[in-house]
Amino acid sequence: PDGRVYVGTSPDGAVYAVDAAGKAVRFFDPEEKYIWALAFDGAGQLYVATGGEGKVYKVAPDGRASVFLATSDAHVLSLAFDSRGRLFAGTAPDGRVYRVDEQGRAFVAYDSPFREIRALAAAPDGFVYVAETAGGRVLRVNPESGEFTIAALGLNSPYALAFGPSTTKTL
User: Fold this and answer.
1) What Å distances lie between residue 18 and 9, 27, 144, CA to CA?
2) CA 80/CA 128 separation, integer angstroms
3) What's the whole-model pTM score?
């Protein structure tokens, strides 16, 4: 939102803001050891997924932070916002996808038989795509019911998901 690039680091567990000149400034420094994912909401708040205690922090543009979500998992590995502004968080070692409302209340949208949800992507049609690393598959999940279809199978450790331009149809 401010033109800077934000970088999460591990194992020192810090978020840096890098300006156009390449100068990195420590922006947020939680107690957790790992920063696994970063995502901005529509209001310019930065959400930081951490490992060690499985928390998601909400960080204001001035750097003030608060715990937005505390899970029972050790790691929150992935984050995505849908078109309605809802946050989705993928975890390990229990392999859950949480749908989180604006107050930070979490609802299990999908409970995987695999340990890690490494990547999430929210589709324009309201479905959430979930990368199950150990399962080698990508799922198309209905975040309201938890029902899913397999979008891709037989992949070697899917770690990242992104949708192409809006002219591209979803799977």
Assistant:
1) 13, 9, 37
2) 9
3) 0.91
